Amino acid sequence: MIKKSKESFLHVQNPATGEYTEKIKIASKEDVENAVKKAREAQKSWAALSVKERSKYILKVRNYLLDHIDSIIETLHNETGKIQMEVLSHELLGPIDTMYQYAKKAPRLLSPQKFFLHLVPYKRSEIHYKPKGVVGIISPWNFPFTIPMGEIIMAVLAGNTVVLKPSEITPLSGLLIEKIFKRSGFPDAIVQTIVGDGKTGAALLDAPIDHIVFTGSVNTGKIIAVKAAEKMITATLELGGKDPMIVLPDADIQRTVRGALFGAFANSGQVCASVERVYVHSSIYEKFLDEVVFQTNQLRQGKDRVAGDFDIGPIISEKQIDTIKRHIADAKKKGARILTGGNLKKGTKGRFFEPTVIADANHSMECMMEETFGPTMPIMPYETIEEAILLANATAFGLTASVWSKDRKKAMKVASRIEAGTVIINDAIYTHAMAETPWGGVKNSGMGRVHSDMGLLEFTNPIHINKPAWINIDLWWYPYTMRSFNFFKNFIFLFSGNMVHRLKGLLGFASWNTITFGKKKDDEL
Ligand code: NAD
Predict the structure, then answer these.
(1) Percent share of the chain, pLDDT over 90
(2) Is 65 a domain residue?
(3) 63: Cβ–Cβ under 8 A, 6 or more apart, which residues?
(4) How confident is the model over 383-394, as pLDDT tens digits?
């Protein structure tokens, strides 16, 4: 949580204690421009290194993270109030493993890709993956470390330099990232952090950057997309979600409920890929509700002193609390039952909202159509699988979804019909931490992909180079004659048609004349 003071400082508040811990100066427009200028200068020598050399630097960062893991956990825990187990498994596992995986993979993935052209076997082509240049990264508060780190790793491996603008709510995590790269021995200005709010983000977009990676709300994402279009730079947009969980009639109820709890309440539900709405087959609906309430009531909520003390942490800001309360009130008004939770936890200075189970939800309710971003689990019964698929696809979002069943084939059939960037069977959320899997959404959830081979190549401009292999044959050049016209016609039939077309093309070549079949039809056209 932040409070802005007149002198342009951000005041960082620990949401688990309510304490204001640090005061950080907001970067001016000139600071942002200077950072981008420095990044542009540094990019030339960084890009001149081989990918293997850049990978060695990345492994130094990996080592630094592992050597300082406890103090890093402490900083992130104090700024966000996150449960320590979640700092480790949500914030650190992904970047550390991605560094290890992609330091190994990047030299191969970024080396020129050579290929043969079947129509002109006397020529050759290659794709060279050039860095985009200076990459701007604007990130949110809910995963202030893993989100920008995952993007920075791929950007710098590909030869770019980065200017990061972390959320105004979590500037310390952003500054920690810059410090980690510096202390690991990275050359100056390869990774820089500028601290500030939306205005600072806007200043970064106004500066001469070459690519923007934005993670945040749909509304801000649309502003970023328009600005990127005006500047004609590429943009990767990782936006909000309203992720459905479909529970098929044969699901293992006990395990599925454990999965639902993790999906809906991890990071207090402040996850873009949270289970935000649950559809349960009517035949198991009441049993499912009973088990959800039973398991939810076992969860422990609070600020952990040592790892393992608690399961659920605080909510980052008052604004988030307002949205959660509004969605619950609207659901109640429209006939939903609050089976457990529903209120701010009493007797603590921290901002803790009880994990809340909402039964008998339906699509007239805000909690089923708009992103809540809190520890709520609205549940709705359905009658047929067809209906469940329609309901799952009925929002403007498409980030992730999950399907739960003992029958993997049946689950796969349902999964393939869900409109989302990621669909997980019998699990939720976790693939964000997997280096090999792409992450990104469809519909209002955004465009482009981070992580995986696709995410690495997103930080490059693929440059195609074509060259003669042994002789020069200039088929396309002047003069245009009837002979060259006939040659091309035979050529198209021979190389791009079905068996009959190919035979006709071959006969045309044999007589060195045009093929006449189909001529009448062409004339008629
Ligand atoms: P937000 O849109 O309010 O802010 C995100 C970032 O954009 C912040 O750094 C903010 O300072 C900056 N910003 C705000 N206005 C700007 C402007 N006009 N120009 C440039 N920058 C600007 O989002 P938030 O509340 O920080 O994050 C929560 C949202 O992020 C949720 O909707 C969540 O679903 C989404 N999210 C998506 C993913 C994903 O992978 N798809 C991951 C995490 C969070």
Answers:
(1) 91
(2) yes
(3) 184
(4) 999 999 999 999
pLDDT digits 0-9 by tens, 66-99? 999 999 999 999 999 999 999 999 999 999 999 9
Q: How confident is the model at residue 309 (pLDDT cuts 50, 70, 90)?
A: very high
DSSP codes, 12-56: EE-TTT--EEEEEEPPPHHHHHHHHHHHHHHHHHHHHS-HHHHHH
**Closest ligand 1 atom number to CA of residue 218:** 32
Q: Which domain, by its residues, includes 484?
A: 478-524
Tens digit of pLDDT for each residue in 439-475?
999 999 999 999 999 999 999 999 999 999 988 888 8
Q: Can 74 be counted among the known catalytic residues?
A: no
Residues 256 and 203 in one domain: no
Would the CB of 438 count as within 6 Å of ligand 1? no
pLDDT digits (tens, 9 = 90+) for 246-265: 999 999 999 999 999 999 99
- For a mutational test of ligand 1's pocket, the pick from 142, 145, 193, 226, i.e. the residue with the most ligand atoms closer than 8 A to its C-beta, is 142
Contacts of 189 (CB under 8 A, 6+ apart): 35, 38, 39, 41, 42, 161
Q: Rounded distance, CA 104 to CA 225, Å?
A: 33
Q: Is residue 18 part of a domain?
A: no
Alpha-carbon span 289 to 295, nearest angstrom: 10
Phi, psi of 92 (to 5 degrees): -105, -35
Q: 409 and 488 share a domain? A: no
pLDDT in tens, 174-190: 999 999 999 999 999 99
Handedness of CA 143, 188, 43, 199 (dihedral sign): positive
What are the strands of the beta sheet with 460-468, ordered from one edge? 113-116, 123-131, 460-468
Q: How many domains does the chain have?
A: 3
Q: What is the pLDDT of residues 147-156, one digit of tens each?
A: 999 999 999 9
Both structure tokens of 309: 């003390």
Q: Which pairing describes strands 422-425 and 400-404: parallel, antiparallel, or unpaired?
A: parallel
371 lines ligand 1 (CB under 6 A): yes
Ligand 1 neighbourhood includes 141 CB (under 6 angstroms): yes
If phi over 0 gives left and psi between -120 and 50 gives alpha, with beta otherwise, what is residue 452? left
Residues 380 and 457 in one domain: no
DSSP 343: S
Any domain includes 10: no
